[in-house]
Amino acid sequence: MKVYKSEKAKEKILKTYDQLLDEWGTAVEETDISTTYGTTHVVQCGEKNNPPLVLFHGVGDDSALMWIFNAKELSGHFRIYAVDTIGGPGKSCPNERYAKDFEQIKWLDEVFDGLGLERAYAAGVSNGSYLAQHYGIMRPERVIKMICMSGSVAEAGGESPLKTMFKVFFPEAFFPTKKNIEKLIKKLSGDNYGVFTENSVIMEHYSCMLKGFNNMAMARHKLKFFNEEQLKSIKDKTLFLLGESDPMGDKDNAKAKLDKYNMSYRFFPGVGHGINHEISDQINKIIIEYFS
After folding, report:
1. Which residues contact 246 (CB under 8 A, 6 or more apart)?
2. C-alpha distances in angstroms, 188 versus 11, 130, 131, 271?
3. pLDDT digits (tens, 9 = 90+) for 218-251
4. Is 59:127 a contact under the CB 8 Å cutoff?
5. Who's near 269: CB < 8 A, 6+ residues apart?
6. Whether pTM exceeds 0.70
7. How many alpha carbons fall within 13 Å on the CB side of residue 45?
8. Which domains does the chain have, with CATH numbers?
9. Residues 264 and 239 sit within 8 Å (Cβ to Cβ)
């Protein structure tokens, strides 16, 4: 499975990935976990005897960018394991098996096993929210608690987010000029879009991903929708955090679903899809309090 459009594109993405890690403001360790579907890259930080917290990023994203404003604060309380989703534009490397018969839960089991994690807290943003939710439902004994950001419950009968994604990302993502990239970020964000646009390394990395990542590499990650019993099984150990200005979701629809399953949640005014970037101080505090 070709993750990058060219070797040159790969070099640019990985170079800016490392530059973003340098801005985390804390010492990191990087490791590659061997799985059935290739190697999965994990960025680790925080004391090893801290409670384990597994972090999942979104589609077309990676750990270096997703947790740039969270890793330093969270690593003071947890041992962080930031997973580069296999098939995404980070440092994970899918093999031929990935393109043939990828199974998300089998992959996550092998990542947890490879990291030596019997149980852990989990948090994710966007598709990472779904990954945390999926694993929490299918492996309740391995997920202590979870926080799902910029994503609602994946209930049976739900629609694929592809239509919404196309509406939000078109035309800017298909014509990634400097002007269009800034316009797209403003579409995705709330009032505090400057956390992205005023950081030159973030802008460079995001530009490299839009231009050089093969989006079809994530096509093997199929969404699974859950029934009422499955969703209610996680209601006492899950917190949803959402932005009221998130163009990827409708507030009223999301709230109705969350209420239907008696989920705990909080909405934040003036906040878009990049909730953990836009109001990082608040989000860091909530994560620490909820998991502590």
Report:
1. 150, 190, 271, 272, 273, 275
2. 26, 18, 21, 9
3. 999 999 999 999 999 999 999 999 999 999 999 9
4. yes
5. 244, 245
6. yes
7. 21
8. 24-159+216-291 (3.40.50.1820)
9. yes
